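Recap quiz, item 2
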Amino acid sequence: MLEELRNAVISGADKKAEEFVRQALAEGKEPIFLMNEGLIPAMEEVGERFNHKEYFVPEVLLSARAMKAGLALLRPLLTEQKFQPVGLVVLGTVQGDLHDIGKNIVGMVLEGAGFQVQDLGADVPPDKFVNAVKESGAQILGMSALLTTTRTVMATVVKKLKEQGIRPGVRIMVGGAAVSDDYARKIEADAFAKDALEAVAKARELTVRR
Amino acid sequence: MFNITPADLNAYLGSLPVSRRIVRRVKPLALGLGPLWLLRRAGRRTAGLPLGTAATQLTGTSVRDNLTSGSTQFQTLMAAVRRFRPDGIGIISDLSIEAQACGCEVKFPENGLPYVSSKLIENPEDLEKFRVPDPYRAGRMPVVLKTVRLLSQKLGLAVGSGGIGPFTLAGELIGTERAALAVYTEPDFLHAVLRYATEVVISYQLAQIASGSDTVIIGEPTGSILSPRHFREFAAGYLTRIIKKLPVPVTLHICGDCAHLLDEIALLPIASLSVDAPVNLAEAARKIPANVILSGNLDPITVVRELDPRGVREATLKLLTEMDPYPNFLLSTGCDITPDTPMENIQAILDAVREYRYKP
Ligand code: B12
């Protein structure tokens, strides 16, 4: 059963994934178990295949869609049973930059790993990031930048968070082709991740370390 | 097409009046003879750089000024020619022109490149309402045509222009994520959008050629997110159709990492391939037919923009040395040079190439 659920997600079969989750729930399986042993390892496998160039962007998007179909059934139950999401992540691509595929993949894989994700989209102005963090009380702010010309917006956001006194309450994670470990350190972000799998690992670290 | 000996060329050049002989030394491009002979001058090396965006510094104009006025862009490119004396000159690359001409909205940062900010096509029925835009009227296409016309009339250098490829345009029209998913979920719709995009590209490129372009570059950055199988099905066929319709040598440019696509790309009827910094150029050279020019691939950011002239020079010489065994190599940057790249760094590339060219 679990094996089949995982395979459905890995092969991107959304109807099947949904069906397997429904069946498993009917058989009395715990939602948290299906999440931890089904959806999460499946999305990890998808991330691995992407890193090894066995999967490309379309395959990852297809799997993410299947994962979401399963998650849609589990989420209300998890909330009912008061299972907290691992953490809340506010995510977006910075102003001036509309590359959003990588950011979307990171968002979906984070969701697949049990995080709640508030996606602000692409071309997001600094104040919108700041307000979203303020209003949601997110533990993590994730920013994506693929253009070297616009990555400086990340530094602006960090500065604004500091000015408004909310910087200590939120961990900042950055990524995208224009960003590196060095750059993350330079703008005083808490973490950089080069791909979606690393993003999950770092996000987990950041939520634990609090 | 490329079996042209230096003797043929001399014969051709000799047939021209003296004044044009000098000026038109790279003009065989216009005859469809292909630019390869340029590279064969006793195995010497040439650089072909996208100078336009950075050259806005020379005229003190913004990128936006140049992309909205043909005469401004022409002045900028003239300034680049005077300063750098290149073997050819190309228009500023701008990935939003086609989508805007089709009706998409575009956002325009003052000193950055514009980008598409609205999707246009939601469902297959929408497509029926769409006409291929008239390149002499639609959006900023006339700006490009005017730039090309002025360059061709006044400069006498090989003029390069171009635009985006069908998959990238389809991504702008329906949303890139939807286009990526569509290879699985709605391939028929995607094919319909691609057929439309292909006609848009052909009509726009033909108008550029009619205005005086000697060679065109088709940029297909979004193609790099596809697997080889999907690239074959959703990009290669359309690119082939376009290339066959255009009576000048065509360069394909792919941003990002396209190493996994080289076997597919090698089958396209292109005259030249331009690849980005993540690709190992020597490996690419082994996969691409020897009669296709391979150009690349200094990193426009970490090398050309961020190093000092000495560092840029060293990186250039290193690439030249690595590519020494491949006569079809043309030195370039992996992708467009940014508007804020120091002129000295560009000069350093050109100097290094000239120095290497004449080394004993
Ligand atoms: C597809 C593409 C486009 C598409 C974008 C479609 C879309 N909706 O996203 C189009 C054609 C529209 C486009 C336009 C442009 N592009 Co573009 N594009 C690309 C390309 C080829 C692939 C990007 C991609 O989707 N990759 C696949 C995804 C899965 O990878 P990823 O984004 O890197 O994401 C992964 C990681 O980085 C990480 N990650 C990403 N975000 C985040 C966030 C967090 C918080 C974390 C932790 C991790 C993380 O995880 C992801 C999954 O593994 C890249 C090449 C490249 N090397 O990346 C150029 C590239 C990004 N583009 C570039 C440029 C210059 C442009 C244009 C300015 C071109 C022009 N001349 O007009 C415009 C700018 C438009 C704008 N204002 O944004 C340059 C940027 C150079 C630079 N460093 O400044 C690149 C690098 C190409 C190059 N070498 O020149 N582009």
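Residues 6-355 of chain B form a domain with the TIM Barrel fold (CATH 3.20.20.210).
Strands of chain B lie at 88-90, 106-107, 115-116, 158-164, 215-219, 250-254, 272-275, 293-298, 329-333.
End of item.
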